[in-house]
Amino acid sequence: MSEHTGCLVAIDGPAGAGxxxxxxxxxxxxxxxxxxxxAMYRAVAYRALRAGxxxxxxxxxxxxxxxxxxxxxxxxxxxxxxxxxxxxVEGPIRTPEVANLSSPVSAIPTVREHLVAAQRRMAQRxxxxxxxxxxxxxxxxxxxLKVFLTASAEERARLRYEQLQxxxxxxxxxxxxxxxxxxxxxxxxxxxxxLRQAEDAVEVDTDGIGAEEVVDRVMHLLNARVEGSR
Length: 230
Known about the structure:
The protein is of the alpha/beta class. It has a single domain (about 5-210), classed as P-loop containing nucleotide triphosphate hydrolases (Rossmann fold), CATH 3.40.50. Helix content is about 50%, strand content about 20%. It has helices at about 20-30, 35-50, 60-70, 95-105, 110-125, 135-140, 155-165, 175-190, 210-230, and strands spanning about 5-10, 35, 70-75, 80-85, 85-90, 125-130, 145-150, 200-205. The strands form two sheets. It has a five-stranded parallel beta sheet with strand order 2-6-1-7-8. Strands 3-4-5 form a three-stranded antiparallel beta sheet, with helices on one face. A hairpin with a 2-residue loop joins strand 3 and strand 4. The longest helix has 18 residues, at about 210-230. The relative contact order is 0.21.
């Protein structure tokens, strides 16, 4: 499959549904490049914070900033890291402060325009498995396979709670669940590229299913699509 270019698999779904883990696993098996678009929006939020820019009052400046950044995904050990202008930002963009800011930042029209263009350029060079909120509906409506991963808010909050606890962060499950529901509401009701399932996407509910099994299911779907396109 790696001889192709373009978007082989577009994976969308709400925050915390396991998109990153599944997309990375599918990309490894298919021999193509994994693109975490959520990390790109987090990176814009991180750089906006660092520059002292505020959503609402500095939207034009944040949009201009997004157009100036150079994004590159590189393997660091066994993990994929996002580099922005040569800086490894994988650590800073995973903080709760940046995570909470990334949703309102992603709703700024000029930010989305610049990042969608960057994502499409990436797929012009290599075959990609791309995950986010609007990959199958906006970025790559002609993707070979579209998957919509979903899970209950409680399950997604539980996974996030466990991740943060493992990092040694003092967190409240109730607060994480409340933040999760608030983000779902923002993402699904925003005016620009709201989170929704593409009509031709295959829905996969990840509640109670291990990541490897989900990857197996997506690979089965992808192999069938590749065979059908020949």
